[in-house]
């Protein structure tokens, strides 16, 4: 008879049948005998050793080609994507280098081929003289190397604990072997192959034990492998371990087409990830399948066809915009929990339902009893190396340290060149707690691994001390948070969907690590590691970089290192995330936020906004052992993100950081590209608000949702379900304390006519859609000069701008709403095609530079003339200033009960006060420097304070800004510059202004001269940004000469000067000013314009909004280099300036000076200012810092008070600069501008207020606008009749003044029904 040995995946040879009945029968008997001998572990002799000469071949790439009839034809509707092409993010550059596997690879250092091995099945091996039997604890003899062969162990035996002493080795041969035990205590070595000798046969290790039988946490060798010695497990190499779809996989398909040639084998299991917004147990659209065949195709050299064992149930998108991942679950070495006692038993009630709206979510108290196997590599002498290993039914829910693979306290092992601890091309799935954990260890490498269906953080750095690890080319999917993570969407425990702040949680029996309520696919407590080429699908966020002020848990005694301030070791590159950020409006695919603390010995965690990442080179920065923050330019670092991609997420990135560079960031189908803090450069970004080819499930997770196209009734579906279909936008400008530069970026398919919109003004029309959204809800946190754009491209967009003002006063205009602005360096954002400034139209004509300005959606878009620029400063004190943020001038108070009273007016020289800026108690002034005008006239209605201080001056050193203030006749002055309050005898702390006799002398001086025109009763002085101190003693000149901008942020050819927050200008008035405040001077007129013969301004024709156009499918091509920003014309020196200052050039980074000890308040007078929090603060602080702000949905947001963020301290930057881009401020302006009819301005007497237009007037409005039917008073309609509270909402309070009239966009008004957000009284109030 003939017997043919045919190796199969992971199994012994199979005997092929003969051609005759007799030989078939005999062969069957022999085969049965062989199986019986293996089952009974009967080896032919004690000396028997498996022959390793006929191993199964190693898996190789397929050679069979898919038949033409089964090969699809790509089309425009279903395009082919190859080689991990992406339009902007170069993901292909961050794939593991390709290798071509061979059937018989060369092997070296194979443990099972060593000499001197003892056989497990030889009685002489054992001290007792007998081979271990079922149920026995096994002690490997000391000083022995014991080999397990295919017949050594009866596969029905379940041993107790197998102990390997320090001097011994247990070696598993390359044969079909099945070991079952309670666990392994590896003090010596457990070896199955090596990194250069990968085993090809099926090897299974099953670990037994039940949760109920243990006192938890049990010893690490109970249902686990406790390794204090060495473990090496190395199976066959399957490459790559994960890929992406090349074509969309549709419902009913039985073939997948992927972007890589793979050597996956028939019989192996794979998973295709979801391409839905929601990824949870109650909305599970990931699909597992078994491979039937793998074939090459004629579609492309790298496109492979995978035949499935059953049709797909859901669609998985694989278009040009983005593609689902496909990952391999199976390996030939398997470590697993037993099938009886591993799976959780509390899964009966796994889906919960919102009582108010019927939406579903995973129940908090289910899936808490999983008790799987684990591998615990522990101690500074331990080593753990894994490749080609599959771990399933692993991890023990809420048991500390019992994770699938856990490197625990190995210390700093970077000296091993990443050879003593690594996991590569392995798989974790069906994990009940985590995937790959690195704890107290530096120098681990995780490469090309996959993870699927895991509870808690998956790839996990634990306590904040883990550094110099490499996490590259890995993939994770279907990751489940623990605890009450649904609270923000159901308004529970003080959490709110719209708040930036969330409640602080502590450990419980069902949540031993509170940060697991924000479980991420990748969760890194320390950023000083390498994160390259990873893919995340699902999780609370895809990639989470939380803030740890100090290390936690086992390392909470370390006080000289702040994990939150550590920089990235290398740029965060080539990573992608999708189907995450679903559980909270502010969550993102990439989330730099949340805070984990262990200050009192008890862990606390909040998922929301907290202390920021102040990235520093010095590890002690931010601790008691070092400076409070990064105050020197040599210490400052930027978190750099390159070639990353996010899709199907609420936010692409949420980053509560201090400094970031974000380059080649690609986003599709997200609600907001990003919300970022601090000094941030975004370059070469593609933001596609809504892709044209993929249609995620409508209102996913909402069983009561109507059919698509039907109106969504109020109160049906939770906010987490409909946010994706209600609000989206391109980019959000913040309200205070930022420096953002956005260059070379495109916004695509951001249209308010998206057919799937809900809760809009009409069916299929979204209400709150715009490319740029400006936060303008606050009277407390208000903007300076913070943002610059250049080379912006729009493709198929509707509205370009949107404000988020909430009604904090009866007029509906906030302080932030009046001051919001940005510098459009080349006119690409405003479509003016020349240097331009975009400023608020809610501030009358304050931001209207000249007659060529265009009024577009609440803004003035103004081309700038030569010399035009912009500036910002804050005046103190004002009446009631101490009440800011408490009873007045609050952060988004929706009912108008805490307004921000007006205290005066600011007007440009030569213009009427009526069209100037309303000055509020929160007296920040941000606005244009108009070359024609030459300065700002500031009138306090009740008179100027006797001591007036000016702080946070933000004026470019090449710009000239004069201030004029009216005082009584005979007033005398003491005016000086005061250095930072911490200034001491080692520096010059005060520099006096000197009196001069003309305005021209003031203009020529550099911020230390004033002119008092007693006849005109007007004081003139020039303000400049100054360094924190004025030099060493004896070096301060009597007359200042121009010095460079003290601090700035420059990237992409643009520059933002940073306000001088540490220094103060003090004006003390006496003599004719005999009271406080000084007597008002209503008859003093606004000074005449200083430059009546202006330089002609460019007069570009207004460019209408771009017309939406279909976007052709992108063509694979190399990622182009960033386009340099256009360079404006050189800026000439200001008129009448005899000694013009040199024009500064962009510097590569901000240059703050060393700070001995920052002090919060300038002297001599206290300078109150807003504190960054939405909760009233009784003691305002001088320097405003980024403020908590509700996201773009109009709802106020109460929240906890954060810790103040220390601002960097400015220092001189001695870098001269070419004229091109003095950004965002150049020098002075154009022609006189005709003053239109005054708009309403609540300026108290004696300053006359303009009269508003009649409420029933039908004015002539701009194109695309309609007259506003507006109520004259808060509780009256246009007829003066009292109206009910619900009717009151029909009166719009936010209006756009156009020539003294009120005009709005022609959006149909929908009378309020039952608010979908109003689950309780608090939410109604927010509405």
Q: What would you say this structure looks like, in words?
A:
There is one protein chain. With 1327 residues, the chain is mostly beta strands. It is built from 7 helices and 73 strands. The strands form 11 sheets. It has a 30-stranded mixed sheet that branches. Strand 41 (595-597) and strand 42 form a beta hairpin. The longest helix has 19 residues, at 21-39. The radius of gyration is 35 Å and the shape is elongated. The relative contact order is 0.07.
Task: Draw up the topology in text.
Blueprint: E1 5-6, E2 14-15, H1 21-39, E3 118-119, E4 138-139, E5 145-148, E6 159-164, E7 169-172, E8 177-186, E9 189-192, E10 203-207, E11 224-227, E12 230-234, E13 242-244, E14 255-258, E15 269-272, E16 287-296, E17 304-308, E18 325-328, E19 333-337, E20 351-353, E21 360-362, E22 374-378, E23 383-387, E24 389-394, E25 405-412, E26 421-424, E27 427-431, E28 436-442, E29 445-447, E30 450-455, E31 459-461, E32 470-472, E33 475-480, H2 487-490, E34 520-524, E35 530-532, E36 535-537, E37 541-544, E38 572-573, E39 576-580, E40 588-592, E41 595-597, E42 604-606, E43 639-655, E44 659-676, E45 679-683, E46 686-688, H3 719-722, E47 727-733, E48 739-750, E49 768-774, E50 787-797, E51 801-803, H4 815-819, E52 821-824, E53 836-840, E54 854-856, E55 859-863, E56 869-876, E57 902-908, E58 917-920, E59 924-929, E60 935-940, E61 947-954, E62 962-966, E63 971-978, E64 990-992, E65 994-995, H5 999-1004, E66 1009-1013, E67 1018-1022, E68 1048-1051, E69 1054-1057, E70 1060-1071, E71 1266-1267, H6 1285-1288, E72 1296-1298, E73 1301-1304, H7 1321-1326
